[in-house]
Design a protein that fits this description.
The chain is mainly alpha-helical. The chain has a domain of about 130 residues: Methane Monooxygenase Hydroxylase, Chain G, domain 1 (Up-down Bundle), CATH 1.20.58. It has 6 helices and no strands. The radius of gyration is 56 Å and the shape is flat. The relative contact order is 0.04.
Length: about 260
């Protein structure tokens, strides 16, 4: 039985996962030694690097669990757990060092592959030039000059195309700017029209309110006149209401004039 299982099932599980990763790392580096292709070596190193990251994470979890159990374990148990953690860290560091060494070797190979052809190509050109006659050298020089002139012409064309594109872009931006200015002016005009319309609506509202007051006053006057006429018709002898022309009885006036004479 695993002694860690008696202490903590979680510690035993973490240790088992770390052991599996160390076994996979050992097999991976053995496989890496047999690979000759640089690209395959790079992919293998990336895979091993991912395993080492996972192992580092598990060791941190192991250390966290050990610290959580320090209060419940005795001194010997805590020492045993810390020693196991240090052993795991040392083994992981050894794989990290091997990975760095392989990475350095791959980088050096890439530099050699990058610089090698250029040096070989230059050396080949020197050998070819030394084996040429003067006429061949002149022809070769003329061809190189023609190639250079063509490259210059292509560069000029590229520059001209770039200038044309820049000119077209500037013209398009100018047109868009003018269009935006027109839109802004139209928005200002619309805003001014809305403001004037609002003022006109307010004036019409005030005028309508005034007209309503006048109509109401006239309506009250008409109602009063109608009321007076009705009262006069119902009670013609009422002295409290002044006579309205055309409503007073004419017979009484004629009788008074007759008696006076």
């Amino acid at each position: 039985m695993d002694p860690l299982s008696a202490i903590s099932e979680e510690l035993a599980e973490i240790e088992g996962q770390i052991t599996d990763i160390f076994r996979a790392l050992a097999n991976g580096f053995q496989k890496l030694e047999k690979i000759k292709d640089s690209n395959r070596q790079s992919r293998q190193l990336e895979d091993l690097t991912g395993k080492m990251r996972e192992c580092k994470r598990l060791i941190k979890e192991f250390d966290t669990e050990v610290k959580a159990l320090e209060g419940t374990n005795d001194t010997n148990t805590n020492k045993m757990l810390n020693d196991k953690k240090q052993t795991m860290v040392k083994e992981l560091n050894s794989y990290v060092a091997r990975k760095k060494q392989y990475a350095t070797n791959l980088e050096n190979k890439k530099i050699d592959l990058f610089e090698g052809p250029a040096e070989g190509y230059a050396e080949e050109n020197v050998l070819l030039a030394s084996s040429m006659s003067n006429e061949q050298l002149i022809d070769s020089g003329n061809r190189m000059m023609d190639d250079t002139d063509q490259a210059i012409e292509r560069s000029k064309k590229t520059v001209q195309d770039t200038i044309n594109v820049g000119t077209e872009t500037a013209a398009a931006l100018k047109a868009q700017t003018e269009q935006m200015s027109r839109v802004v002016n139209e928005l200002d005009s619309i805003h001014f029209s809305i403001k004037k319309a609002s003022q006109l609506v307010k004036e019409i509202g005030r005028q309508v309110a005034t007209d309503k007051c006048i109509m109401a006053f006239l309506f009250l006057i008409v109602i009063g006149v109608i009321a007076i006429i009705i009262v006069k018709l119902v009670n013609p002898n009422n002295k409290d209401i002044r006579d309205i022309p055309g409503l007073a009885p004419p017979a009484m006036t004629r009788k008074l004039l007759w008696n006076h004479s």
